[in-house]
Design a protein that fits this description.
heterotrimer; A mainly alpha (about 300); B mainly alpha (about 325); C alpha/beta (about 525); A: mainly alpha; ABC transporter involved in vitamin B12 uptake, BtuC; globular; B: mainly alpha
């Protein structure tokens, strides 16, 4: 269970990124790249010796991750708003660009001289320690849940959240209601970028034992796309997303064991994620599922 | 239309030649090798983009090209090895792509599925299915090299090597251009995207048209997918598609849904793709520019080209909207 | 023509037609209908009476839930419009079935080449052109063949539609509200033309909710009410009163009130003043070409005109939804030219849009959430202490009050706006907009698609607003509505105001002429 929660920690956040896009009427699949950038920032800040910062080191690291994720999301936002470039295309291209940037920096710049297959590990002062001994579950889970709750509050109670929902239900009604469409679209991308940036940061500073990025990016790879499934199962609602991320964490955790014991590939877990997304693309199916759940 | 298309293509070729000469002067790249690789890199993009241009004209969207690339590549190599014939492998890859396209069409038309989410689901599923099948079929998760006999032989024209599939891709783009602009089918396709209710009122089956184009698009994407391991790379790796399915979409969008225009943009993106490995081995460059940045080049070029080309494009009115009378 | 009264065997018989839509709406509850060759049959009824549904079944667009169709006494089943087309039945829909980006010729090709064998055949542009030209000369019609339909005036588009119908050899022609987008002159032309067609032996079915047109053009009329045949009569023996009674049933017939305003409204400064306004449409073409208007307190200024003459762009420009190229809009002394919708609303202007489902409502959001549209930045609906946080309790309370005051029938506040009927949606929009307490109201086709009860309710509210001193700009393509409500009437044609008439001097004929671009003498 603790392991499951540990997997769900980043997934709730990447799920938020996709969900807030959908709520705005955007198909923002840039989470993957924003995670890489967030992780990179975490390594850069977390491995720097900021002895004067003390316990604030951890906060600084997370803020850095959030900021860089936000900046990376700003690119597709501006391309969408000012050039009309569809976000599916721009975010995928940026995911790959982020992939190679991260590859380069983790193997050339921030590489661990002692173990070149990974980056420097972040210092003790910017690590979350495990809360269940013997597992990889750390206090990072609280950051993840708190972020989801904050987004829930923002979406359901704030003027910004209301305007996001209005824009999502139609650009014409949003304009009629006096919503600044460009501004809200950009905000939506930025909010998504913050969540995924934090996810990337947590993958580095809240996932023992390495507290670093592997040169293959193996330990930070795939969470962005899994977030799409998480968001769809959680019906794009932050509370639902927390629950869905736990479900997904369970599948991932189970997949890890399957591979270990039965030789069944964890790639199947990825395939299952895709199949879940495909089946959730059918609203009719949604309604049937909803009826079953209510029963 | 035809003449304009040819003129446009000639302009692209002229620009590209200028770039090639420039590169030769600056970097000392071998222009012949670069052109050969460019044409190879262009081929899967052009095939998939021409089909998807047709598809989007009919008001459908398939963003799952990346996934079709991956799955049909494995299917194609598998069948090529079983039958010992690369061409049959290509054909089988195309058929698998057509089947996927057809199923997606049926599910989106009759199951009212969101095509964007479904296409993305296919891409994600393929990320898992590809390495799984690689291991399940050939025992290695990372890399598989098909035997030399099943690889497609390149044509040799006075020392210049070109793949027969590349020629086919060019012919197909021209053929789809003619179908779209000169035949009844093309008229129906355009009407299905612009005003499906008018097509229906004229006594045509909108959903039939909207099942034909994803099937054609799927076939061509499947062909492009199988082409990569059986011809272009001569190998199949876990992540070999590397966003090419989305770059094909970029060709479609940038060309304003024209099959011939897609071919032109595929050439540009193919050049960016081919340039990366060429630059990486060019003396003087390989020391100063990190290898990873060169690999990121195709994506940055794609994004830049789309950002320049896409503004003011007019999409079909009924794009992505399911048609229903009631 | 005289023997069309039912002595012959009917050409087409529809028997016991029932239609239940997938969402459960019972549109037709067992309708019998006979159609004879050579007659013009009027199909009269209110919005939602089932006229269009019945004809969509006859033309193969919809399949009946129950019921049978006979042609010449033989049972037929239509699976698709193509089956009906093959039997010579063609329906011209209210908003036409032409591909806007195609030329007329290409649209004709769409009906010329059908079937699997033509799939990869080259377009027969020359054959189609020849055939079309021949038809046009026989019919005495003029339709340009090589211009994209989207660039043609509406009247010409309709002729292109009829050309298409005759091109495929239709002998049963169904016209759905064919005059709704035409000028009175164009409508007259259409009537003359379909009478000729009927004389040549075709059956013409004329769907309308306008009694005047039924009497003017049809031979026989069938009245539908709530999915049932309410009555049938030979037009010669029908009177407007009788038809109206059949149409609305036992409900009170709304008598036309003549709104004569005694007050001298033109005194004082205008509350809304538009000067030299030039506005472009989505394709960058000027569609409002220098409009001057003054709206005074306590009046309803009606803008009459056939749809597509710039009125929607004019409204969008005034309300901040579309940018103004040239000219100015002054609201209560404040320049609101090219200001944002929220700025304009804050200065006292509200907008009841024509396309309420797309603009004024978020159909997939809850009813109480819809009450906040446009008011979301109003601190009255925010949390007492934390700024920019919405207090949903206040919103719900306001919503409950509005629902009560405007007698909106809603299951619950938490239901989606989509669950509301058309009439209740409009009531919700009006309720919300009026709660903004503005001095200027811009209402665009405010009763379109509403039933009679909601229509009269909306009109009463507009009159009340006027009487309480607000200025109301009423834009409507329904001339009867304009005549019923307005104190002054401006006629818009091709992006210009052709003239402004006072209530007393406004004659239907003059306005009709002006709507067609003819300046009244």
């Amino acid at each position: 269970m603790a392991e499951t929660l540990s997997y769900s920690m980043p997934l709730a956040l990447t799920g938020l990124t996709f969900a807030i896009g959908i709520r705005t009427g955007l198909f923002n699949i840039g989470s993957e790249g924003q995670v890489y950038m967030g992780a990179l920032a975490a390594v850069a800040i977390g491995s720097a010796s900021l002895s004067y910062a003390g316990h604030a080191h951890i906060a600084l690291t997370l803020i850095g991750s959030a900021l860089i994720g936000m900046l990376w999301a700003l690119i597709p936002a501006l391309l969408k708003v000012y050039r009309g470039v569809h976000e599916v295309l721009s975010t995928i291209m940026l995911n790959w660009t982020a992939y190679y940037i991260t590859m380069y920096i983790s193997s050339q710049v921030l590489v661990d001289p002692a173990r070149p297959e990974k980056t420097l590990s972040v210092l003790e002062s910017s690590r979350f320690s495990t809360i269940v001994p013997g597992t990889t579950l750390t206090g990072g889970i609280f950051i993840s849940i708190a972020t989801a709750l904050a987004y829930y509050f923002l979406i359901s109670r704030s003027v910004l959240g209301y305007e996001i929902s209005l824009l999502g239900s139609g650009i014409d009604v949003a304009r009629y209601a006096g919503v600044n469409v460009r501004k809200i679209m950009i905000y939506s991308f930025l909010l998504g970028g913050i969540a995924s940036g934090i996810a990337g940061g947590l993958l580095v500073i809240a996932r023992p034992p390495t507290y670093a990025i592997y040169g293959t990016l193996g330990n930070i790879w795939g969470y962005g796309f899994e977030g799409i499934g998480v968001a769809l199962i959680g019906r794009n609602n932050p509370i639902g997303i927390i629950l869905a991320s736990i479900l997904y964490g369970g599948i991932k955790n189970g997949g890890r064991f399957m591979e270990y014991y039965a030789g069944i590939d964890s790639d199947l877990v990825k395939a299952i994620n895709g199949l879940i997304v495909i089946s959730l693309s059918m609203p009719e199916l949604f309604r049937i599922l909803g009826r079953l759940v209510r029963r | 239309m035809m003449i304009r298309g040819i003129v446009r293509i000639s302009i692209y070729v002229a620009i590209l030649s200028a770039i090639l000469i420039l590169l030769q002067e600056l970097l000392g790249t071998d222009p012949k090798a670069l052109i050969q690789t460019t044409l190879l890199a262009m081929t899967p993009l052009a095939l998939a983009a021409a089909g998807e241009a047709l598809n989007q004209r009919a008001g459908m969207v398939n963003i799952g090209i990346e996934g079709i690339f991956a799955i049909s590549a494995i299917a194609g190599v598998y069948m090529a090895e079983v039958l010992g014939n690369g061409y049959l492998g290509l054909l089988f890859g195309g058929l698998v792509g057509a089947l996927i396209g057809f199923i997606m069409a049926v599910v989106s038309i009759y199951g009212k599925a969101d095509q964007i989410i479904m296409g993305m689901g296919l891409n994600i599923a393929a990320m898992g299915i590809t390495p799984f099948l690689l291991r399940a079929i050939w025992g290695f998760p990372g890399l598989h090299l098909p035997p030399k006999e099943v690889l497609i032989q390149r044509l040799d024209i006075y020392g210049f090597q070109i793949s027969i599939v590349t020629i086919a891709a060019i012919v197909i783009a021209i053929a789809l251009h003619i179908i779209l602009h000169k035949t009844y089918l093309g008229l129906w396709i355009k009407a299905a995207g612009e005003a499906p209710e008018a097509l229906d009122a004229a006594g045509h089956n909108v959903n039939m048209i909207r099942m034909i184009t994803p099937t054609i698009g799927g076939f061509l994407a499947g062909l492009g997918g199988a082409f990569m391991p059986l011809d272009f790379f001569g190998s199949i790796t876990k992540e070999f598609t590397a966003g090419r399915g989305f770059i094909a979409l970029a060709c479609v969008i940038s060309s304003n849904l024209e099959p011939m225009g897609s071919l032109g943009f595929a050439l540009i993106f193919g050049l960016a793709d081919a340039l990366a490995p060429v630059i990486a081995i060019t003396p003087g460059v390989k020391e100063s520019v990190p290898y990873q940045f060169i690999l990121a080049l195709p994506y940055i070029v794609t994004l830049a080209v789309v950002a320049i080309a896409v503004k003011g494009r007019k999409l079909p009115r009924a794009l992505g909207i399911p048609y229903s009378r009631e | 023509m005289d023997d069309s009264g039912g002595r012959d065997r009917p050409y087409i018989s529809m028997r016991g037609i029932v239609k239940i839509y997938p969402d459960g709406t019972l549109a037709l509850r067992g309708v019998d209908l006979d159609i004879y060759r050579g007659e013009i049959l009027g199909l009269l009824g209110e919005n939602g009476a089932g006229k269009t549904t019945l004809m969509k079944i006859l033309s193969g667009f919809l399949r009946p839930t129950r019921g049978l169709i006979y042609i010449d006494g033989k049972e037929v089943r239509f699976r698709d419009p193509s089956d009906a087309i093959n039997r010579g039945i063609y329906m011209v829909h209210q908003h036409f079935s032409l591909v806007p980006s195609f030329t007329v010729l290409e649209n004709l090709c769409l009906v010329h080449g059908r079937g699997f064998l033509t799939t990869l055949k080259g377009l027969d542009l020359d054959i189609v052109r020849e055939k079309a030209k021949k038809l046009l000369s026989v019919l005495g019609l003029d339709v340009p063949l090589d211009i994209p339909v989207e660039n043609l005036p509406v009247g010409v588009r309709q002729r292109a539609e009829i050309l298409k119908a005759l091109f495929i050899g239709a002998n049963v022609l169904i016209l759905d509200e064919p005059t709704s987008l035409l000028t009175p002159y164009e409508a007259k032309e259409l009537f003359r033309f379909i009478k000729e067609l009927a004389q040549k032996g075709a059956a013409v079915i004329f769907i309308t909710h306008r009694i005047r047109e039924v009497i003017e053009v049809t031979d026989r009329v069938v009245v539908l009410r709530r999915g049932l045949v309410a009555g049938e009569m030979i037009t010669r023996s029908a009177t407007p009163e009788k038809l109206s009674e059949l149409m609305v049933g036992g409900e009170a017939i709304v008598r036309r009130e003549i709104a004569t305003s005694e007050r001298n409204i033109l005194a004082g400064k205008p509350i809304l003043s538009v000067r030299g306004l030039v506005v472009l449409d989505d394709l960058g073409r000027p569609v409002v070409k220098g409009v001057d208007l003054d709206l005074f307190q306590g009046e309803i200024l009606g803008i009459a005109g056939v749809e597509g003459n710039g009125q929607s762009e004019l409204v969008e420009a005034i309300t901040g939804l579309r940018s103004v190229l040239k000219g100015s809009v002054i609201l209560n002394g404040v320049d609101i030219t090219n200001k944002t919708p929220s700025y304009i609303y804050k200065h006292g202007l509200i907008h009841i849009p024509s396309d309420r489902d797309r603009l004024a409502l978020a159909l997939d959001m809850k009813i109480y959430e819809n009450v906040l549209i446009g008011l979301q930045r109003n601190p009255a609906y925010h949390h007492n202490i934390i700024p920019r946080i919405i207090n949903w309790d206040t919103v719900k309370k306001a919503a409950r009050e509005l629902i009560k005051r405007f007698s909106i029938t809603a299951e619950s506040l938490d239901a989606k706006a989509r669950a509301l009927s058309g009439g209740n949606r409009q009531r919700l929009v009006i309720a919300r907009e009026l709660s903004k307490g503005a001095k200027v109201v811009i209402a665009s086709n405010p009763t379109r698609g509403l039933d009679i009860a909601s229509t009269s309710y909306v009109r009463t509210i507009l009159r009340e607003l006027r009487d309480r001193g607000a200025g109301v700009l009423l834009v409507s393509s329904d001339l009867d509505e304009i005549l019923e409500l307005s104190d002054r009437i401006a006629v818009i044609y091709d992006g210009k105001i052709l003239g402004i008439l006072s209530r007393e001097e406004a004659k239907r004929v003059d306005i009709g002429l002006m709507m067609g671009g003819v300046q009244a003498s």
